[in-house]
Known about the structure:
Blueprint: H1 2-7, H2 11-28, H3 48-61, E1 70-73, H4 81-84, E2 92-96, H5 99-110, E3 116-120, E4 147-152, H6 161-174, E5 175-185, E6 203-204, E7 208-210, E8 220-222, H7 224-234, E9 236-242, E10 259-265
Parallel strand pairs: 1-2, 1-4, 2-3, 4-5
Antiparallel strand pairs: 5-10, 6-7, 7-8, 9-10
Helix pairs in contact: 6-7
Amino acid sequence: MWRRLYYLLSPAWRLAARWLRYLPYDLLHPPPPMVPPRRLMYTGRGDFVRQGEDWLRFFQDQGLQTHHYFLDVGSGIGRIARPLTQFLSGPYEGFDVVEMGVRWCQRHITSRYPQFHFRHVRLHNDLYTADGLAADRFKFPYDAATFDFGCAISVFTHLLPAETRQYLHETARVMKPGGRFVATFFLLTGKESEVRGSFSFPHNFGHYGLMDLNVQRANVAYSPEFLEEACRAAGWRVRLAVPGSWRGIPPSHPVAFQDVWVLEKEK
């Protein structure tokens, strides 16, 4: 019920509601350096620091090296960037549709680590922004074959099908041949009846499902067949698939609440 009421608010009011809810907590518990106050954490839930460190270990297991040029699609408020500052010597590029998160990262991360760059992109997304360009025509602001490794954590879960295809094509375009890309999804496997808690997708459109019709990008789920075809069309192969615990199964990896795919660009 609370989620449905939350989605009735405008994007700006959703951020304001979170700010007001967590301001007393932040006043009593000031965060350490490069950790945002809770009132600004508009992405994800749980332990901000531990989750970022878990993702870094997962990236290392999938071949991330210190010299790699890293792309963070939907960089948010620095959950992925923060631990990478202690590992990467190569450049990092992140972009996000929420300007507040980008500005925070520039002030608190780039000021300490100049090779970490954050960019605000003005795109329409009815969960986070009220206006902006259409994401299904967005061209990433990077040259072809630039990056060795990248990620999109809880990004495709907020994109509609045409936008997902565009992002898969664009990540493939800017990734070097053989480069790897870690992305998370909600996959409609037919076992959604096992879901416990607030994650369900009652509005089914065949190859994708929505949690809420009023805020369509609140949470979006896809059929594996659609994503596999979209990945092939963009030039990706699925190197590894880790099922997510969101549907009620035991967690197979600390990072796998959503379903995790490791993609490799065809050489």
